[in-house]
Amino acid sequence: MSIETTELTKHYGETRAVDGISLTLPDEVRVVVLIGPSGGGKSTLLRLLGSLEAPSSGSITRNGRVLPVTEEGRLEIRRRNGFLFQSFNLFPHLSALENIVLPLVRVHGRSRDEATARAREVVARFGMEDHVTKMPGELSGGQQQRIALARAMAHEPDLLLLDEPTSALDPEKKAEVLDIVAELCEAGQRIILSTHEMGFARACADEAIFLADGRVVESGRGSALFEAPRTEALRAFLGRVMKW
Amino acid sequence: MKNAVSLLVSVVLTATFCFVIWVVATHDYRWEAIAPYRWNLLSGWWVTLQISSASLVGSVLLGVLLTAGQLSGHAIPSLLCRVFVEVIRGTPLLTQILIGYYLIANAVGWDSRFGVGLVILSCFSGAYLSEIFRAGVESIPRSQWLSAKAIGLTPAQTYRHVVIPQAVRRVLPASAGQFANLIKDSSLLFVISMHEFTMQAREANSNTYATFEAYLPLVLGYFLLTFPISLLSRHLENRFRYEH
Asked: Do the Cβ atoms of A107 and B147 come within 8 Å?
């Protein structure tokens, strides 16, 4: 799948969260990592790429096809994506298993038995099989995020978008979740994620993009961005986040 | 300090309760005066039960409609529902009953006291319920809507599977309170000569001057109607409990 954006812009009132971003991500780029300061536009870009929001102007192309901006059109695209949020956002009134089964049945038209079997399979892969009957409130942050990842993954999405998936977790739980994401990357899953985990970004990125003030400041293949930053802004950013 | 306060509160409450029981129990009653009216009181209780049950159903339906109208996102229905709710909540029920029956129902030639009473009580209670329901829906965090959107649910599915199940639990206590109010408010239908429970007690009193003997059965009668609602609400709250 190739992804291109042309002069992509998103305003919220006077704020330009994404300010004219043009990207070309060819098919062989499977894992894209967005880095940069908070408020730099990472989350907004992910939401635009995931069709959660419509751009104010500009367009996104997937495999040469321009993505629709109507609500119905974006709904269709969203159904082929998986999206993971920083704060898990599980449904608190449904058990861990039901959180995964709900979209499989209601969105992807699977039968309940089929959906349950599939949910159990994904949960087992993520090492959560002992927790399926628990409610989200009974799970730790790391466990909730693994269930949320299972929910985003269970329908085998074309594209998985992860918005700072480990920012709300302590270091040990971060590792649990990042191990799974790394495993997905190795298995060839197409992923775009934003993160502050530079070690992880460096190890897994096919392409890394540094965003600040809603613009792409610098981008590069593999770990090039981390080894030889070209701009002062990226050097300063890396200096700050890698200091400790 | 906390213990002292709770001890004081317990003592005051117990003392007040004992005093009330003592006063009520030691009064010199003339039950024989009211005895001939016992079937009238019973039939009044039955009318109150009927009109309250019917209005309860009516007010829930209307409350849901008014909530849907206000949250529809369409300016005109939203405004109309808002105006309706404000007018009903801002004016006395007594006036609404008088205008509803003697002006409006009279003008269209509708003479059913029960029918008119049902409509007015449903409107009155429905307006209050719609505010409770609206607050319940609006109390569901944005992150839940976003999450539902991300997994590809339509807005209707989001209400059905994510928002309403969580909102129901939150609006149960306030709704139960409103249902109890509705039952007690039905006593105002005496102004259109509806022979409900309170009206029968008033008649018995004016014929016998046995005031306490006529009105005390109201305590038991109304409590028998409102207490099951309170119990049911508690039961449902526990059934829908998911926070830990």
From this structure: no
